[in-house]
Protein: 2-oxoglutarate-dependent ethylene/succinate-forming enzyme
Amino acid sequence: MTAIATPATPDFALAELEKESRMGAMGSETNTREVRRISLADFDARRAEIADQLWDAAVDVGFFQLVDHGIDLADIRAAFAEAERFFALPESVKAQYPLANNAGWESKAQVRPSTGTADQKESYQITLPLMGKLFPTEAELPGFKAAMLAFEQKSWEIGMKVLSCFALKLGFDTEFFTRAHDKSSAEYQSTLRLLHYYAIPPEAQAHLDLWRAGAHTDFDCLTILYQRQGQGGLQVCPGKEFEKQEWTSIPPDEDVITCNIGDMLMRWSDDQLPSNFHRVRNPLPGEYMGPRYSIAFFCQANRDALIESPSGKYPSITAGEYLKQRIAANFGRKY
Ligand SMILES: O=C(O)CCC(=O)C(=O)O
Ligand SMILES: [Fe+2]
Structure:
């Protein structure tokens, strides 16, 4: 896919798009990078130490995993059970809740600039102020909405803990990003996304060309990702090494929460914290070919939050405008 410059598309959005459109090849695999595990135990007393560890891991590989994070495994499994129930609804029901502006359901509709083909998945996004009638009814899916709201809250809390550490390291007060992701505001735009990558039918297994999720960076400040045991495929390629196209697998482990830095925090940190390319590759022959479920929470600063460059490297921009421009450049306004 080629980037078409329009007067409304700013340079930063086009530069990201150009980079992304060069990331569609298979590349090679390397296991020499370490995706570090960081304990959040005794968080309040250890915040400064944890902040140092998170910063080092983020600067190094950009992906890291949280342990002792305080979310019960039972809650994570229950959220996945809800996601499975949602995706098992008939298509005619899901189609009543179509994706618009980061909220709602889509299937095989997200075309990544890296691949030019649609991700082989369906997803359902929950962005609180935008939900209107986008939750399935209690008759269709009893208990779903309440369970998802509770899980969204837990994910937000973890996200804000991690962001409070990055705030410290950037010289902001610890509540700086919590205010920027204020849930009580109508400008809130953080998103919980349920993902279902389709099982690969036997006849397709010999010639897998489409991607489960094409290579991309996330637009947000921080992504919190839950993976399921045995359902692998996530790979990362640090942006600073993108010329080499060497990918490192992040094996799923339901006991950890995987995190990555997004483009918004990269800009907010004057590029000190890199957002990194990642993708979900298809299973290889002999690997598990069943469905893959994952859940992501995107900490996207509120629309009216002002992203101000600490050193003046970038002009100030609201998070709403920033996201709008990135989405328009990559996807023609849909996501
Ligand atoms: O499903 C995954 O493991 C990754 C999903 C992802 O990268 C995204 O939705 O942005
Ligand atoms: Fe992503």
Summary: Residues 29-300 form a domain with the Jelly Rolls fold (CATH 2.60.120.330).
